[in-house]
Design brief:
The chain is an alpha+beta fold. The chain has one domain: HIT family, subunit A, CATH 3.30.428. It is built from two helices and five strands; from the N terminus they run H-E-E-E-H-E-E. A five-stranded antiparallel β-sheet has the order 1-2-3-5-4, with helices on one face. The protein is globular, with a radius of gyration of 14 Å. Bound molecules: guanosine-5'-monophosphate (5GP). The site of guanosine-5'-monophosphate has 13 residues, from strand 2.
Length: about 110
């Protein structure tokens, strides 16, 4: 299977505004931000969707949340508030099939889920 757009970012084949990186995780700004802070927190392993994870991935999934929280702190939106979103498959509108968590903040959000 060809590399996802996020794998191409990880490999530095296409540019991105990288906010955080370690051995397992990369985080970069969304190219079409939906909020003043909109950062994608992405495991480097190309897991297509949350459906493709198992209990063996519990630590990695936990690290995605903790990394998102740490970035929220660094961006100064932890106290004002932030939202984490993971879309899974078509009905959720997933467009990039490489697991990721959207970190959104910097504005007051409503409760629209559709
Ligand atoms: P999804 O719809 O799969 O939950 O989210 C995919 C996100 O990736 C979208 O918010 C979209 O704007 C973002 N995105 C798609 N292509 C690129 C890209 O090439 N660079 C960056 N930084 N974000 C991208």
């Amino acid at each position: 299977m060809s590399d996802s757009i996020f794998t191409r970012i990880i490999k530095r084949e296409i540019p991105a505004s990288i906010e955080y990186e370690d051995d397992e995780i990369i985080a970069f700004r969304d190219i079409t931000p939906q909020a003043p802070v909109h950062i994608l927190v992405v495991p480097k392993r190309p897991i297509p969707t949350l459906n493709d994870t198992s209990p063996d991935d519990a630590a990695l999934l936990g690290r995605l949340l903790l990394t998102a929280r740490d970035i929220a702190v660094a961006k100064g939106i932890a106290e004002s508030g932030f939202r984490l979103v993971t879309n899974c498959n078509a009905d959720a509108g997933q467009t990039v099939f490489h697991l990721h968590v959207h970190l959104l903040g910097g504005l007051k959000m409503g409760h629209n889920f559709a």
